Amino acid sequence: MTASTESSAPGSTARTRVRRLPELAAQDRATLHAVLDDALVATVAVVDDGQPYALPVACARDGERLLLHGSTGSRLFRLLAAGVPACVTVTLVDGLVLARSAFESSMNYRSVMVLGSSAVVDEADKQAAMRRLTEHLMPGRWAQLRPPTRKELAATTVVAMPLAECSVKVSSGDPQDPDEDLDAPVWAGVVPVEHSWGEPLASADLRFDAEPPAYVRGWRHGRT
Length: 224
What we know:
By secondary structure, this protein is of the alpha+beta class.
């Protein structure tokens, strides 16, 4: 079963309906977009000759599609370019939830699963797609870089996975301990997981003396 339109709600197909803790399912596309926009890496899973493979791949949302790029020699990208069915997941961990028992302890997280087949981004759109990926991963960088060479473009495959059939799950808040555990002398709460950028380190072969560009320093105060 596949989604009928790109605007269908997350979790609206038999394959994507959240069955475990369905109350955590998010059904609005704004949440779907927000999770993907915060993600730098997706896990892409395919089956080749009966063997499942799941690999991390840099990603960027471009409207109602997810862009992925890799080497033309990569088995994964040869399969994706051929349109084999794939499962793409993103998980962002926001905190550790410390309950009064190991059983009730958990994580606060935001996750997305996308099912479908990808298509190769055509040559007319390829450089724009690479720019979108670069700007998502390293905001402000593309304008300072030299353009990709023909050889580099030829060595790179960019594919787009439609966000047509997907699910979104969000867990947040305090531990949900049963009443009989509430009097236990055990601290309970949430330890947030914070993602931050460190001080930029110049390459050892940098041939001029300069401070990191302002846009790089700006990443420490929020990437746009």
